[in-house]
Sequence to fold (111 residues):
Amino acid sequence: MLKKITTLVSLTAISLSIVSISAIAQDTSLKVGIVQELVTGDLMCYATLIDENGKEHYAGASFEICADQDYYLNKKVQLTYQEVNINDCQSSEPCGKTRKEWIISKMKIIE
Fold:
C-alpha cells in the first residue's frame, strides 16, 4: 500500500512539474545555467536549470538534449533557443493541432 501511495505522489509531483514547466516554457531569458535535471516528456524534454544567482529556471528542450542527459547533467551550459511547433493534443497521440513554443535547441558546455 505504501509503495502505491509513494508512486502516486511521485507521479502527481511529476505531472505538476510538467504543467508548471509548460506554463513558463517560453521564458528564453536564461542564456547560461547549470543543468540540474532533464526529463523526457510526451511533448518535449523538460529542463531544470540553475542560474548564477542560484535561482531555478524551467524550460522546454529538444528530445535530443534529453537523450544526452548524462553528458549535460551538473554542467554549466550556454543555451540556444528555437521556436518550434509542439503537439497540442490532450494525449500523446497526434491530433493535427500544434502550437508554437520556444525551446532549448542546443546546449554548449562551458567552463
